[in-house]
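Extended Data, panel c. Modelled sequence:
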Amino acid sequence: MMFVAAWFFQLRDSLRARFEALERTAAGRERLDAERLDAGKPGLFVLTPWRREEGGGGEMALLREGRLFEKAAVHVSHVYGPVPEALTNGGGGAAWENLPDDALFEAAGISVILHPRNPHVPAAHMNTRHIRIRTGDGGEIRAFFGGGADLTPMLKRYRDENHEDVKTFHAALKEACDTHPAVDYEAFRDWCARYFHLPHRGEARGMGGIFYDMWQSGDFDADFAFTKRVGESFGRVYETIAKRRIGTRWSEAEKREQRKWRGRYAEFNLLYDRGTRFGLRTGGNVEAILSSLPPDALWR
């Protein structure tokens, strides 16, 4: 498990460098006048380690008030210990049911949240994780991967499955899926559409992507390679999309529309997101878990 956790930290460093480079790109664009961006320097991630009393911990990497990103987070964690009761009493799903009293768990993962300042640049999310459940004497009971990535355009003109940005995003994820013989891209895409849905509003949060949870094919090496491919593909494709839109000027009406969809984003994360619930139920860092919320939102 240690080498899996180590890779998530490596991916964190790679994504930090990529997003900080985008910050510098935003600062250097002549088309972006001072009225449209903060006058300060390009944003940098601030690293904050944290420890979990029951075992393990992680590190927050948070960028605030940047030139491109109003808020960006690339968090990693590696936690372990007795399985929390909140997961075994129905709060964790089928994988956490009927466990022996001495069951232990270990989980490592990365969570990426991007909230750009410019409403023409889409918000995005990526999360991948690996979880193992064992008995007290070291016998493995269950092990699985989970995660995915999704795109949330903030303006109606971009919320179309035939839009260039949406097609580019899905093509990159399909390519990642096609590297694993047991992965069905269409099934993972449909899974994402069902998951990132706001039932109380009867609408999707964004334009989807892929999602998988409590998943294993029986080939650990292939499953891990696929999970790594998802993380790497996300970084590359988001950079491509952001560079297309980074110089587009926006209006106050478009900024209000962005804040409306940020409100939908917040509703999903607080009401339905499994990662939020898992983190809170396992004693994770509250600041890291709730940093997925947008910097501001609008309900009107």
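The two ends are 47 Å apart (CA to CA). This feature is highlighted in the accompanying rendering.
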